[in-house]
Amino acid sequence: MSAVTTSAAIARPALPAARRLAPLVILGLLALLPLATALGLPAHWLTLVTRAMIFAVAALSLDLILGVGGLVSFGHAAFIGIGAYGAGILITEGQTELLVALPAILLVCAAFAAVTGYVSLRTRGVAFIMITLAFGQMAFYFAQALSAYGGDDGLTLYEKSTLLGREIFANRTGFYYIALGTLAFCYWLARRLVASRFGRVLRAARENAVRVTVTGYDVDHVRLGAYVISGMMAGLSGFLLANQTDFVSPAFMSWQRSGELIFMVVLGGVGSLHGAIVGALAFLIAEDVLSAWTQNWKAIFGPLIVLFVLFTQGGIAGLMTKLRGRRDG
Amino acid sequence: MAEPALALKGLAKSFGALKVTDGVDLSIAPGELHALIGPNGAGKTTLVHQISGTLRPDSGAILFGGTDITHLPPQKRARAGLARTFQITSTIASLSALENVALGVQAHSAHPLSFFRDAARDEALNAPAWEALEAVGLTERAHAPAGSLSHGEKRALEIAMALTLKPKLILLDEPLAGVGHEEGERLIALLKSLKGRFAMLLVEHDMSAVFALADRVTVLVYGGVIASGEPAAVRADPAVRQAYLGEEV
Description:
The complex is a heterodimer.
Chain A: H1 22-38, H2 44-68, H3 77-92, H4 98-120, H5 125-144, E1 155-156, H6 172-195, H7 197-207, H8 209-214, H9 219-245, E2 247-248, H10 255-268, H11 274-293, H12 297-311, H13 315-328
Antiparallel strand pairs in A: 1-2
Helix pairs in contact in A: 1-6, 2-6, 2-9, 2-10, 2-11, 3-4, 3-5, 3-9, 4-5, 4-9, 6-7, 7-9, 10-11, 10-13, 11-12, 11-13
Chain B: E1 6-15, E2 18-28, E3 33-37, H1 44-52, E4 59-64, E5 67-68, H2 74-79, E6 82-85, H3 97-107, H4 123-135, H5 151-163, E7 169-173, H6 181-194, E8 199-203, H7 207-213, E9 216-221, E10 224-229, H8 231-236, H9 238-245
Parallel strand pairs in B: 3-8, 3-9, 6-7, 7-8
Antiparallel strand pairs in B: 1-2, 1-4, 4-5, 9-10
């Protein structure tokens, strides 16, 4: 510690160490899943969980602005769509190289986020929700109008992206680990971001923007930064999604999809980051299991989510914390 | 004569037909503790909002250390060294006391918004934050969430946050409001210990605190200044006695 000479030398209590087991457990279990398929779990689970992890990246990115920044964006699927269409259009034009596609996609997402964020952040609360929804719908109708690339029907892809000519997405297990690696990287990135100086200001502004402003920060500036980073991360998930489904369509950026992303974040627990991952996994797996069981699965799924959110305030992550507290106490 | 820390020149603000600030002239010397008193609704907090930049005056000028800041946004005023506390305590409830203070240190650091490095374990931020917490006597509560502090502790925390802004002037909006007697005494002692390091504008209802602390006193009634000067002179002013202080003084 520096040369501090205070008369009242009360000892400075040490910062209690943070325990974050849950994310490690989640990512560890995900890493082991391909083993389970080798031991007899139906192989389509690998595809399902890959898809869930891709959506987890998008949910994670949404949690960064919604949970950490307190900005409810209802147009987040637009970024998934831009990522997916970026991959789709480039592949259709014969450009499959990931090292070309990905930077281009991230750049376009950043630009779209910067422009729409700049406008949206002039509003607050419900107005912010509506204006992000409007931008999302603009992207949706734009994709519908892209007749050269399938228009309303969407665009089927006959190739996947490659890395330096190698077909890294061809193998199902390989793809699974790429998705897991991407998710782990994004989680790590988001976690660092939240703990950083930037993240501290973003968190503080969610609670008390006036205080943060008179402390000397430009709150809108910080929020726009978070919005751009979040948009790029969602674009990355769109890129992976296009490569997994070999198909892109305007439905990727429908407002229902944006709503589902919010659902995933709320389901997992707002603002905890790993909650968004759990929420996305739970959402997609529940959707798959229920839809295999009955055609009217949405009639069960809807009330289930309502009950869940009502009774577990804080989502799945909150529920786990509560259970742990009960065991300790 | 040295440039005043703060000078208000003919400041005026109306809400509709109501003149909440009516041509206020005020000057605070560097290091001076200037008390602003007046009955409820006199426009004291509105004046503080205009000085800190969260409200725009209709006319007049605000000079901070000789620079015209009338049209500067609040965050730029803060960075220039104009800090404030709020009538209703305003802290970041979920952040620890130390982090609240570090937020202020960070605002004036070379990289207020850097990514990646863990801010909570950043000694460049924490060392000055600890010093500010020690100055207001909150060392033991450093890691408690600000929301769990007592009312008086939150007031002290707000002062610690203001200290980190390398202030030339701190606006204190009723720092004693709602604070119990014992904690009030402690806050008055704290303000006394800080006197002289920077200028302070103290808005306060507690007259014993005002007369114990202030170098000069300004009395605001219906948005206008009716008296300004040494505490003893203001206390003796017949207009003040009639308008505000009543018989008890």
